[in-house]
Amino acid sequence: MTDELVRMDHISKLYGRVQALDDVTVTISKNEIVGLLGDNGAGKSTLIKVLSGVVPLTSGDIYINGEKVRIDSTNDAIAHGIETIYQDSALVNQLSIARNLFLGREPIKGPAILNRMDKTFMDDVARRLMREVGITKDIPPTTAIAALSGGERQAVAIARAMYFESELIILDEPTNNLGVAETQGVLRFVRNARDSGHSCIFIAHNIHHVFQVVDRIVVLRRGRVVADDIDPRKTTIEQVERVITGELEMIDGELTMSAEAQALAALHGAPEGGAAPPPIN
User: Strands 199-203, 33-37: parallel, antiparallel or unpaired by DSSP?
Assistant: First the structure.
């Protein structure tokens, strides 16, 4: 993929003396789903918070469609076409599907001074969007979010991002606490988002879910990128797990035993270098 949508260039983030991100460069292409993996504390959440405007970066630059931008708030991120969907989806349980789809961006009909929401338009859009994200059940748009399943709630959040023409949809642990059928539904929604012209960053602890939907995998470890071009079609889950734990690293497009792993192997008397994994390209 050559059409670059987002580039986070040499991003660093300090919390006092703690280096959460250290010279991280990550790119996302148009119509690409990128899996962002790493152990707890690897820097995944911090990287996403920087891109979505939740926390400021310490140094580095962000480019969108080749143009350098400042993202100082979540509103800045939304204005640049970046929508983040967290595990709880940031939905209001007491409000309807239609109201949640347009929350904070409600269409008005008649004189603006009357501030009357166009509920008919909202309901019509909600019905169409729910079909587009794969909800086959006839769920009225007036249904409260509290009455939906976990997978259906994620569908509403994804539909909202798609409707407001978000170029990049960030999904942070979207399959946590979901059943098998609902998880497959969320993964299908992700594929549909790409097919509709959106890019996605997909974060999940379950690597099996990542392998089912992503085009490319980026791995963070201790605040640094240790692999940024893993092709899930040419790489095994076991190899990616070994990258996450620090046993393997990517050098010139190939996975090889890391310096840390080689040092441990030498310490315990194993042959230096160990068994070399197959190249990924």
Answer: parallel
